[in-house]
Amino acid sequence: MTDSPEILSRLARYQAAAKAAGVKLTHQRLEIFREVASSLEHPDAESVFRAVQIRLPTVSLDTVYRTLWLLHDLGLVATLGPRRGSVRFDANLEPHHHYVCTRCGLARDFTSAELDVMRIPDAVQTFGSIVTTHVEVRGVCGGCAAKSAAAGQPDLPPSGQEARRET
Amino acid sequence: MTDSPEILSRLARYQAAAKAAGVKLTHQRLEIFREVASSLEHPDAESVFRAVQIRLPTVSLDTVYRTLWLLHDLGLVATLGPRRGSVRFDANLEPHHHYVCTRCGLARDFTSAELDVMRIPDAVQTFGSIVTTHVEVRGVCGGCAAKSAAAGQPDLPPSGQEARRET
DNA sequence: CCTGCAAATAGGAATGATTGTCAATGACTG
DNA sequence: CAGTCATTGACAATCATTCCTATTTGCAGG
After folding, report:
1. Which of A80, A129, A140 has its CB closest to that of B90?
2. Residue B3: what pLDDT?
3. Residue in A45, A89, A140 closest to B87 by CB
């Protein structure tokens, strides 16, 4: 709520990008933008919904979802963790890291002696105990890239309504 | 399906741990163990279910879930990505990393010049393009640790049925 | 300032993933 | 070999998310 310059800058960027994308700047979108821009904790749709609801009692959760994904598709927010969907299990107990395709969800392990010894800043300890540490690399896997090439568009970062649904 | 020594070793570990934990080694559990132990891709419950169904046409998806979480609670498998639940959005576009509490889902950003320049093994490129790279640190946050201390047990890694449900 | 239309919204139903409930079944102990 | 309790399967329930659709609204022109 204390509008720092960082937050105002984000908000301005959201509005500019929305305008540039030719989408309408509705009251509900502006409120959702404000909420997301000022979030420090990484909120889920429900949280944003509850917060926005205070000022705009009639917003629908659906609109919050659509606006959040709009920001995502415009490249203005990211999602925490790989593609949602279902919980996935990892039988590999050795230290390792993950490559995850943001299109199809393909996940592969890789190892790196260098990364295994990475030093985590002391400040992190103030958040809590550290149990595991690993690197998550995201990208578009070979299979999905081939599919994109076969279709029309080349290898762009996932955006647009259709890019969201896959597992 | 080609039972490598690694896989056989995992399987043996699962059975030993299950026995040690005093849970029964049922036919369905053994099949699910086998399936998980031999998985290279990180499967979700559905995938394991479909695979096990071939040999055991009557298994229920419920049993697969229960067994998967059993393995998880015994510390024999991990989950990919932070605690499931809902998609969470991140308005921070600067390079940064995440600390995530495995109990309550609290997520915090941290930065590290050292980690920002980490080198990803070339082999990863064979999986596909690399769009983002960041470190995910998991642990138990201060708040949850305090709660645990207040209750009975001290600061153990999340295990047991109750440790799963929170957001 | 008024009008029309495509885009956007509210709501509620639908979907997919996951978990809870409970009676029947089966794995081990004595 | 029988009894007991964990385990299972079927199904209902829940949660997050998306779909559908009638209604409303932002905004370009007149």
Report:
1. A80
2. 72
3. A45
Does B113 contact chain A (CB < 8 Å)?
A: no
Q: Under an 8 A CB cutoff, do A90 and B98 touch?
A: no
Pick the CATH number of B97-163 from 3.30.1490, 3.30.70, 1.10.1740, 2.60.40: 3.30.1490
Judged by C1' against the alpha carbon of A22, the nearest nucleotide is: C7
In Å, how far from its chain's centre is CA A118?
Answer: 24
Give B92's contacts in chain A (Cβ within 8 Å).
Answer: 78
Residue A145 corresponds to which amino acid?
A
Which CB contacts under 8 angstroms, 24+ apart, belong to B108-113? B108/A41, B108/A127, B110/A121, B110/A123, B110/A124, B110/A127, B110/B137, B111/A121, B112/A119, B112/A120, B112/A121
Cβ contact B121–A110 (<8 Å): yes
Strand D: which bases are under 7 Å from protein Cβ? Answer: 6-11, 15-20, 25-27
Given this model, what pLDDT does residue B164 score? 44
How far away is chain A from the Cα of B54, in angstroms, using its nearest Cα?
20
Residue A133 dihedral angles phi and psi, to the nearest 5°: -145, 125
C-alpha span between A43 and A80 (Å, rounded): 9
pLDDT in tens, B11-67: 999 999 999 999 999 999 999 999 999 998 999 999 999 999 999 999 999 999 999
CATH topology of domain A5-73: Arc Repressor Mutant, subunit A (1.10.10)
Q: Over the stretch A127-139, which tens digit does the pLDDT of each residue have?
A: 999 999 999 999 9
In the structure, what pLDDT confidence band is assigned to residue B85 with cuts at 50, 70 and 90?
confident
- For chain B, the structural domain boundaries read 5-73, 97-163
